[in-house]
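step=encode ok
step=design start
structure_in=
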């Protein structure tokens, strides 16, 4: 990932054509972080819970030899099925 500097950011924000070697499209591309393949096409879902919820979820993942992500997918699919929706997580 290319490093940005203040001059690049100001050039991009001004909307004026780039005068140095880097074009505006290159500067915009530098703003978008590279995603690992496992996250491409995915959307993060988050919520705020008591710290004890996070701790218990992590403990459960360790006990079940799985990941928090897998447990959340399981829980979401159970929720979808409860309300007559297709389990797609």
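sequence_out=
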């Amino acid at each position: 990932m290319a490093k940005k500097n203040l001059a690049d950011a100001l050039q991009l924000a001004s909307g004026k054509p780039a005068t140095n070697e880097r074009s505006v499209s290159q500067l915009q591309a530098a703003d978008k972080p590279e995603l690992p393949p496992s996250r491409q096409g995915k959307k993060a879902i988050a919520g705020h819970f008591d710290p004890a919820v996070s701790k218990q979820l992590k403990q459960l993942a360790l006990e079940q030899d799985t990941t928090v992500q897998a447990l959340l997918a399981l829980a979401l699919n159970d929720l979808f099925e409860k309300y007559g929706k297709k389990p797609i997580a």
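step=design ok
step=annotate ok -> Residues 17 and 23 are 7 Å apart (CA to CA).
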